[in-house]
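Schema walk-through. Below, the input block comes first and the output block second. Nothing else is stored per chain. Lengths vary across the set, and this one has 200 residues.
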Amino acid sequence: MDAWQAPLEDVGPAGVDKGKGGKYLIMPPGYKDKTPADYIPMPSDTYGGYALLRSIPKSGSAADVAKAVAYGKRIKLYPLANASTPPATVFHDVADIVYDSTIPYDIRFFESLDRITGEIANLWVWGLPTSELQREYDATNGVTIEQVAAASKKYVQPGQASLLLVGDRSKIEAKVKALNLGEIVVLDTEGKPVAAAGTK
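--- output ---
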């Protein structure tokens, strides 16, 4: 499934492998390289996605369940670059973990949709390819604590920083002054400085 929950392909008896198993290659948007001959190509329109795979036991007995679990663990997930020596796939048993898997049919649904469409719209405005989403993700994950600290020392200058507070001046000004953060400049609704007395 891609990020829009559009299916890429089925696996098993109803899938393209006809129940014989196979290697599925999930290709990101704009993928131009040649697909290896022993892989089943699955082009995706999005970088995000997920898979729902299950093995069906013959019965509910402990032995059949164990066989189904062992069969499911035959699945391997790895980058194409590591195909010659794929790393071991890590499986997590969440059978005893209670979690909320319901779809949020409230404001959270629209917040999530807004976040995704907003990112895509920004790429269009800036004239950037959709691959920028993955590049930014990879770059962010590769940043070390040392690099963050170095960037902070270089670009963050507390002495030149400004703190913008919005609210009722009569209720917050005294408390802000008590913090002794520096000069307080009062602005009107248009962002223009106002007189120090007789205003809010």
